[in-house]
């Protein structure tokens, strides 16, 4: 069992934990969450013995084997396969002793027996499976580590940590550099893991599918919640609601005491009572108000003018190397993006999702065919390597001032504050910003420019849970078009109305949901691993032809229903927008202060009441349309 008792931990002048406690039982799978900079990675270093706490007691069983995922990796001439195998240190020690040949026959036999016990002879196959699952091609197993980019080296670090036999596995943001298929594979691997798992992640669906406990860093304390992330949200909301009620009750008691003291302190007959109440006030535990609102609250303004369609690809071949005919990644792509387009791009690693996004953003020319931009097209493009384009010597405010030199400083302060850059933080150089802060700034710059088409390639990398939630809400209310590639399934589910599959050199509509896509990935992996069909297997496949034809026909029927299904989703989204606007308006109308003046001389109140009536009428019409469309969809689904 891992035990922390009254642990205080400070980095520099910043206290991270103050008299914090934590217990993690053997075999538990724990998700560690909290804002960026709250001390999650430092806690991992503490558990590894690489960092010492300032006070308290930290205990990890001495016999436990600890594996952790390194965040950086230097250039190495070792092959990817050898690098992953290096994670199993016992295997490497046995290999070195056997290769040295210094042992006599009995000792050598014992070494071979140990190799058998740890399944050492199967280790290369296990390492290759890890590489395959994390998206490496079979031939890449023999490439030098130095040949891979930074993101792929992080994947190698993850593979090495998974290769290490362990009782405690510490993973820090393992999905940051993974695409969706690798994320799904990692989930399944961790679900089978038998040891104790501590994982830092800002991917709520990943946490839901992997962990059975949540530890939240809150106000320099470690607060434990049983269950997955969704259970944590429910429990914390209930706890904060109760805390807020107690806080408000306490504040009323404090106000009563202070009022009594002010009134009667000077009267001799009441002096003793006043003194007693002062002591009560001093003894009373000061309960902090519940801060349940996210620190981020922003929207994405839309360009004033808009084209329809915004952007089209017509018989386009997409790839690299235009001058010499190019390496085609996708061929004969036809895609029309209209103002209400909401597409989530799916597809296995290397299929061409990022290449398609770059072509839409005009960062790559088409190899054949046409890219046709609307007259008023204004693209906001977030690339996977967007952070590298920031000027490290400039402040967040200066980045905005360069885009809009005439904007007042206060407007810039207010805008950046909605992205969490408060006070003087907005005017500090970003050189020492965390990855999450840089990602927030990159998104802020894109939103500032009022796009009408957002092209987002893994926008949630480095973002914490609160910022991901704020981004999801902002995308839901964004009036323009969105095309997104992301391994964050919560973002995809809530921001995409349709999915398109990039695979085998083509772009096609995907008629299922994300659960269907996970099944498609599993079937694809099975097909890749299945040996070539023998004559007997061929007969079996022939017997399955009718079933495949039936599935294809069912898919065609679902495809025919897709426009109606999308219309239902659009109506649901519109209803949600109006419901939120109506709730905000009615909250304003609930304020007694606005009724204290003569209503005939209060134009703002008249406007609000008029808008309330209009919104209620719009909502009623939308609900009627939604009901009719839903019934039609259900009838057609039943008919098929």
From TrEMBL:
The entry's keywords: ATP-binding, Coiled coil, Nucleotide-binding, Repeat
InterPro entries to which the protein is assigned, alphabetical: AAA+_ATPase (IPR003593), ABC_tran_Xtn (IPR032781), ABC_transporter-like_ATP-bd (IPR003439), ABCF (IPR050611), P-loop_NTPase (IPR027417), Val-tRNA_synth_C_sf (IPR037118)
Pfam families linked: ABC_tran (PF00005), ABC_tran_Xtn (PF12848)
Signal peptide segment: none
SMART domains on file: AAA
Region of interest (Disordered), ranges: 525-555
Compositional bias annotation for Low complexity: 532-541
Domain annotation ABC transporter: ranges: 2-244, 313-529
PANTHER family per the UniProt record, alphabetical: ATP-BINDING CASSETTE SUB-FAMILY F MEMBER 1, ATP-BINDING TRANSPORT PROTEIN-RELATED
The protein's name: Probable ATP-binding protein YheS
Source organism: Exilibacterium tricleocarpae
């Amino acid at each position: 069992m891992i035990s922390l008792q009254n642990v205080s931990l400070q980095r520099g002048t910043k206290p991270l934990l103050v008299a914090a406690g934590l217990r993690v039982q053997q075999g538990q799978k724990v998700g560690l969450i909290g804002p960026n900079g709250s001390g999650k990675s430092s806690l991992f270093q503490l558990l590894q013995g690489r960092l010492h706490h300032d006070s308290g007691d930290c205990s990890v069983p001495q016999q436990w084997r600890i594996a952790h995922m390194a965040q950086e990796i230097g250039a190495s001439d070792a092959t990817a396969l050898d690098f992953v195998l290096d994670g199993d240190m016992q295997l490497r020690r046995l290999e070195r002793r056997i290769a040295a040949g210094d042992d006599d026959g009995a000792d050598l036999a014992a070494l071979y027996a140990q190799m058998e016990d740890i399944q050492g002879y199967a280790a290369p196959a296990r390492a290759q499976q890890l590489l395959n699952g994390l998206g490496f091609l079979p031939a890449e197993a023999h490439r030098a580590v130095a040949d891979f980019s930074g993101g792929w080296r992080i994947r190698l670090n993850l593979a090495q940590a998974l290769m290490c036999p362990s009782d405690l596995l510490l993973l820090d943001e393992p999905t940051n550099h993974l695409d969706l298929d690798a994320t799904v594979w990692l989930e399944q691997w961790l679900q089978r893991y038998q040891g104790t798992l501590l994982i830092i992640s800002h991917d709520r669906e990943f946490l839901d599918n992997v962990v059975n406990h949540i530890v939240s860093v809150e106000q320099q304390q470690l607060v434990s919640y049983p269950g997955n992330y969704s259970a944590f949200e429910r429990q914390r909301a209930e706890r904060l609601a109760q805390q807020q009620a107690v806080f408000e009750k306490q504040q009323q008691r404090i106000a009563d005491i202070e009022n009594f003291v002010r009134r009667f302190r000077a009267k001799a007959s009441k002096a003793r009572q006043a003194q007693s109440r002062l002591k009560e006030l001093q003894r009373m535990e000061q309960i902090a108000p519940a801060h349940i609102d996210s620190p981020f609250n922003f929207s994405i303004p839309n360009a004033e003018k808009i084209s329809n369609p915004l952007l089209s690809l017509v018989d386009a071949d997409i790839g690299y190397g235009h001058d010499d005919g190019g390496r085609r990644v996708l061929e004969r792509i036809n895609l029309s993006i209209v103002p209400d387009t909401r597409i989530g791009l799916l597809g296995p690693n290397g299929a061409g999702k990022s290449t398609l996004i770059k072509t839409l953003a005009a960062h790559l020319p088409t190899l054949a065919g046409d890219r046709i931009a609307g007259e008023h097209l204004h693209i906001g493009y977030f690339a996977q390597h967007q952070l590298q384009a920031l000027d490290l010597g400039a402040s967040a405010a200066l980045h905005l001032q360069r885009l809009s030199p005439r904007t007042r400083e206060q407007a810039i302060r207010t805008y950046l504050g909605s992205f969490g850059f408060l006070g003087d933080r907005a005017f500090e150089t970003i050189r020492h910003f965390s990855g999450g802060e840089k990602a927030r700034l990159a998104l802020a710059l894109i939103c500032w420019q009022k796009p009408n088409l957002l092209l987002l390639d893994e926008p949630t990398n480095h973002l914490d849970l609160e910022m991901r939630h704020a981004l999801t809400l902002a995308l839901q209310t964004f009036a323009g078009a969105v095309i997104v590639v992301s391994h964050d399934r919560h973002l995809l589910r809530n921001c995409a109305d349709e999915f398109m599959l990039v695979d085998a050199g083509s772009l096609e509509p995907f008629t299922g949901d994300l659960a269907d896509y996970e099944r498609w990935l599993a079937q694809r992996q099975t097909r890749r691993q299945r040996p070539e069909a023998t004559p007997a297997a061929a007969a079996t496949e022939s017997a399955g032809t009718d079933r495949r034809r039936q599935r294809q026909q069912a898919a065609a029927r679902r495809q025919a229903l897709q426009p109606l299904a999308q219309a239902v989703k659009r109506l649901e989204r519109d209803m949600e927008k109006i419901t939120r606007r109506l709730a905000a308006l009615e909250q304003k109308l609930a304020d007694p202060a606005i009724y204290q003046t003569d209503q005939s001389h209060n134009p703002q109140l008249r406007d609000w009441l008029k808008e309330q009536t209009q919104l209620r009428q719009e909502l009623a019409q939308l609900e009627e349309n939604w009901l009719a469309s839903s019934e039609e969809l259900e009838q057609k689904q039943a008919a098929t």
